[in-house]
Specification:
Radius of gyration: 20 Å
Strand content: 5-15%
Helix content: 40-55%
Bound molecules: nicotinamide-adenine-dinucleotide
Order of helices and strands: EHEHEHEHHEHEEHEHEHHHHHH
Shape: globular
Number of helices: 14
Largest sheet: 9 strands, mixed
């Protein structure tokens, strides 16, 4: 495959996703406002680092953005030196960041008017899945154009779901991450309770993973250091999925719940706890640090 894909946002997730596109034969034009992040791809074959978003946009037929939040996505797409003003006619624009559904609901029609095809395509799976091309994509946008994403998404993930019109991919992602935040809290509370009683966390994990408490956070992303060698908890909670990003996703869930008059008491509680974590020194550490946070908050 000789086609060229633009990639904007080479952080914890984006750099692995871009590398998987390279492995599958795509040429990459990459940009990140942080030079160190952009340089993480230097030395790879078939990579050009662009000096601006405008330059990148003018060189590619398809591009992926993997940015932190609403503001960064709105800016990168809509400012004068951004994607919409500078992309090639007919380009495919894929935003894989997690943002409020209002963002793709704004950008989608704007892009359509200018002759582009835009999708919200957030991902689930975490950094390890990004590295192993095992992500799940949840896609919103024009259904009759969905198939044009096949080659790009299969290079980075194992599955993609068409969820509906603009914003539907983000809505699915926000529901998933609200469950993720609640379940990481639940597993961390259970493990911390057991450890304080005197149980061995490895034994307790084995018990849970053979019992009804088993879930992704206990099995694949365990929050106790030393249980899973490759999980962020075993790397001093570095890398992975920052607590401040999960807090953002939980706040998106609470907002979506307000907009749709849905009751989310557990989602609200998880949001409050991650708000507290982000006021501590742990905001940039992986979200499984909630285990350590609970362990250090005696009896509260
Ligand atoms: P990150 O903070 O590690 O990476 C974001 C990158 O975007 C950084 O390198 C930053 O320099 C760059 N950036 C920010 N603003 C920019 C701009 N205006 N122009 C160019 N570059 C800019 O974040 P991440 O963990 O890679 O997550 C990216 C997105 O994916 C977030 O929306 C997050 O919620 C979502 N997500 C993360 C995970 C995870 O496990 N880390 C999993 C699923 C989804």
């Amino acid at each position: 495959c000789n086609s060229t894909v633009g990639f904007i946002g080479l952080g914890n997730m984006g750099r692995h996703m871009a590398r998987n596109l390279i492995k599958k034969g795509f040429n990459i034009v990459a940009f990140d406002m942080n030079k160190n992040a952009a340089e993480s791809l230097c030395g790879e074959e078939r990579v050009v680092i662009a000096s601006s978003i405008a330059e990148l946009s003018s060189k590619v037929d398809s591009l992926v953005t993997m940015l932190p939040d609403n503001d960064s996505v709105m800016q990168v797409y809509s400012r004068d030196d951004g994607i919409i003003k500078n992309a090639k006619k007919g380009a495919t624009l894929i935003d894989s960041s997690t943002v409020d559904p209002k963002v793709p609901q704004t950008i989608g029609p704007l892009a359509e008017k200018q002759g582009f095809v835009f999708f919200d395509a957030p991902v689930s799976g975490g950094v390890m899945a990004a590295e192993n091309a095992q992500l799940t994509f949840m896609v919103g946008g024009l259904e009759n154009e969905f198939r044009r994403l096949d080659k790009i998404l299969t290079a980075m993930g194992k599955k993609s779901f068409y969820c509906g019109k603009y914003g539907s991919g983000q809505a699915a992602k926000i529901c998933n991450n609200m469950i993720l935040g609640i379940s990481m809290g639940a597993v961390s509370e259970g493990l911390n309770l057991g450890v304080r009683f005197g149980l061995d966390p490895k034994l307790l994990t084995d018990v849970i993973n053979s019992s009804s408490g088993r879930c992704w956070t206990s099995e694949v992303y365990n929050p106790v250091p030393g249980i899973l060698e490759n999980a962020p908890s075993s790397k001093d909670y570095q890398g992975g999925f920052a607590s401040k990003l999960l807090k953002k996703d939980l706040s998106l869930a609470v907002e979506l719940a307000n907009r749709t008059c849905s009751s989310v008491p557990l989602g609200n509680k998880a949001f409050q706890i991650y708000e507290q974590i982000c006021k501590s020194q742990y905001a940039d550490r992986d979200f499984s640090i909630i285990y350590k946070f609970l362990n250090e908050s005696k009896g509260k």
